[in-house]
Design a protein that fits this description.
alpha+beta, 5-stranded mixed beta sheet, 3-stranded antiparallel beta sheet, 19 strands, 16% strand, disordered N terminus, disordered C terminus, binds 2-acetamido-2-deoxy-beta-D-glucopyranose, signal, transmembrane, membrane, transmembrane helix
Length: 461
Amino acid sequence: MSDIVNQRAKQCNNIFLNSKNKMRALLLLSACLSLSLAQLRIDYNTTKQQCPSIQCVLYDAYMEPNNLCVYHEKLGGTDASIKLRSCQDNPNQVCNLYSPFAWTQLSYVNQASITNYQQSPLVGRKTQVECRDRNDLMETDLNNGRRCLENYQCRSRMCEWDTGVCRGRQNQSSCANHRDCDHGLYCATNSAYPFESVCQPQLGENVTCNEDAECGNSMGCTLIYKQTEKKCVKYYSLNTTEIFAWETTTQHGSLMNHVNMTKDAVLYHGRFCQSGLASKFSQTTAMCVAVNRTSLSNDAGKTKYTESPLTCQTNTDKIVLCEYYDDQFTYARFSLPCDCGYDSQIQGYCPLPGQDFLQTHGQLIFNALNQSQACHTLDRFDLKAHRDCGVPASNPDDLVRFYQALDSQFQLDYWAFAQSKDAYECLHGVFPFSSLQIMAQSVRLIVSAVIGALVIFSIIL
Ligand SMILES: *[C@@H]1O[C@H](CO)[C@@H](O)[C@H](O)[C@H]1NC(C)=O
Ligand SMILES: *[C@@H]1O[C@H](CO)[C@@H](O)[C@H](O)[C@H]1NC(C)=O
Ligand SMILES: *[C@@H]1O[C@H](CO)[C@@H](O)[C@H](O)[C@H]1NC(C)=O
Ligand SMILES: *[C@@H]1O[C@H](CO)[C@@H](O)[C@H](O)[C@H]1NC(C)=O
Ligand SMILES: *[C@@H]1O[C@H](CO)[C@@H](O)[C@H](O)[C@H]1NC(C)=O
Ligand SMILES: *[C@@H]1O[C@H](CO)[C@@H](O)[C@H](O)[C@H]1NC(C)=O
Ligand SMILES: *[C@@H]1O[C@H](CO)[C@@H](O)[C@H](O)[C@H]1NC(C)=O
């Protein structure tokens, strides 16, 4: 598991160097965004929060000639502003957000206390992003199982001409790493001398493992409380109050207490829980929690709200924390800072949706992962990749569910923006990892199946 995270971190760095690579997933991207956030020291007691004003524009005198879709017109301070513009004037263009870009993270930074440039969330991120032709973003570096036209697109350098799919080494062939093996396989080290590495089928439920990549795509590798070995555990399967390992070797290891938690950490561990959320239970353990009441740190009365979405105040002298409670415990399970919204610099949203949304989300994502046997183990969280290796294009019900999974992930990642129809539509038009844009790149026949789902989501909004 730590390998996957390290690899993610590497990919986050590589994306910048490798902007031709268009296969970056929405999960990968959100992981990159939150990686940088996790590295920031946030002093909730003294940091003033300053959200940028965000505006979707049809025309802008600077963006138009420069063909920009994201433009931080003013960086930091009380008048920070971000402008967004759709690339869809030209149907073949897409906003090139596949490398790290600056978003609203700057609002969390105690500007007075930053002396080292590396602590700034703007370092190594684009503040101006351009529209690019889809064909210029030709996919390369594809894992086995992905659709291809040319050998050089595949990591294995082997595009099988009759199926048009990247092919890797088969069962029992020697390998150096997971990437070498075909989809459905991982690179295993034999347990006896001379310990050679060979491709072998991914493991089934409850089989002993070392890392997620070894398990079938709908399972992760974790140590359940009181068991002696890590095992493949189905995602979104554990009941509330079940205890399992907190990943101390990842960037989440430094999150010492429930107050300086991150959205990424509770969702990352929560991928094992039916509730979709886990809190830190001890130094080394996580616990599945179902939080359905939230209070705000600036509310002296400590009202426990059950509604979702819950608004909170931004641009305050001290960051407002959303404190999440369950039914079991009188103290908050964890707290997360109020997220900047789109509509106003004053009003934001608590960053997590309600428990109903999260439970449905878990089922949708589990379903997508469970259908992705034709995707490589390293592509499991790359929903964008699933569009050409996972979804059986022949079944409209599966397509609708896949669309719902994409949309659910997008709403979860950008919860504070999914709350207003304008912001949601604006972001959908600009962000290439939105359901709309991912599906737009997919085969035509999907369109009719998706209309049903569109109707469902416009009712929600
Ligand atoms: C979280 O808080 C602990 C102790 O309060 C601190 O040692 C740790 O560095 C903090 N982590 C982050 C990522 O801010
Ligand atoms: C922040 O303030 C709270 C209460 O106001 C206090 O309990 C806590 O120790 C403070 N944290 C830090 C890091 O100063
Ligand atoms: C892989 O090879 C092993 C050993 O020959 C065999 O037992 C297993 O059935 C094979 N699995 C698949 C999926 O081909
Ligand atoms: C795996 O273990 C869980 C919990 O002990 C059990 O509910 C489940 O049936 C097991 N699955 C298989 C396939 O053995
Ligand atoms: C979760 O709880 C249900 C009902 O309480 C039980 O049937 C099921 O076995 C539990 N699942 C696990 C994985 O413990
Ligand atoms: C919170 O969720 C639990 C489990 O889903 C449920 O039993 C409980 O009634 C909910 N409480 C509130 C206040 O909604
Ligand atoms: C997961 O996929 C397998 C194989 O396609 C199927 O038999 C199983 O019912 C699916 N599980 C769930 C929970 O949908």
